[in-house]
Write a structure and sequence with these properties.
The protein is an alpha+beta fold. It has three helices and eleven strands. A hairpin with a 2-residue loop joins strand 4 and strand 5.
Length: 210
């Protein structure tokens, strides 16, 4: 059984190291203006229309989904899958695609650019191949978000063979500022794909249960 191990920066001591709030944050489509005011549901998350979701070919976002403030072609997208949501990351390397898939995961709940990189958490996981590694990585993030009460908006992912080592930057959930629209229960193996396209870009995608 594959396991994921996450350790806070600056271990030992279990103290999360504060990092500057400035710096580039990879971002997708921003939250649309004029969204309805949320209400707090039984789960503690606020209930609102997820206007920050980005489905290519449907309602255009205010800006194209992209990464690193437009300086790289890395980007993330969502796609529909019944009652659940597909997350897709596109980048020039497997690690970049995994970073963008993680941003798409965050964007199911809130606009990634609204999450300040105030704390960092290190995550390591492994799997028999890259395709199985994607849901392992995303589920490790889901676990960290749930247990720490955090959201993440910036990622650095390094993949070597079947091992992933990553750093995720984020902050505790602020219901009024982040207005989370949904709780991601986990990433599934449904529709999981990690492949290199003919144009040289890597695509990493799977379905997440919400």
């Amino acid at each position: 059984m594959n396991t994921a191990r996450a350790t806070p920066a600056g271990a030992p001591g279990r103290t999360l190291r504060k990092v500057p709030r400035s710096g580039a944050i990879a971002s997708g489509a921003p939250r649309a203006a004029g969204a309805a005011e949320p209400s707090v549901g039984a789960s503690g998350f606020q209930v609102m229309t997820a206007t920050h979701l980005h489905f290519p070919g449907e309602e255009p976002a205010a800006e194209p989904a992209h990464g690193m403030n437009g300086r790289t072609p890395a980007r993330w997208e969502h796609f529909r899958h019944g009652a659940d949501i597909g997350v897709r990351g596109i980048g020039l390397s497997p690690g970049s695609a995994f970073e963008q898939a993680a941003l798409a995961l965050t964007a199911v709940a809130t606009a990634p650019e609204a999450v300040a990189p105030a704390e960092e958490v290190r995550i390591e996981t492994r799997a028999p191949d890259r395709e199985l590694l994607l849901p392992e990585w995303l589920n490790a993030l889901v676990h960290e978000m749930a247990t720490r009460g955090m959201l993440f908006g910036r990622f650095d992912v390094q993949i070597r063979n079947r091992r992933l080592a990553a750093t995720a930057w984020g902050e505790p959930v602020d219901l009024l500022r982040h207005r989370p629209a949904a709780t991601v229960k986990g990433a599934t193996y449904t529709g999981v794909k990690v492949r290199r396209r003919d144009d040289g870009f890597w695509v990493a995608e799977c379905i997440v249960d919400v």
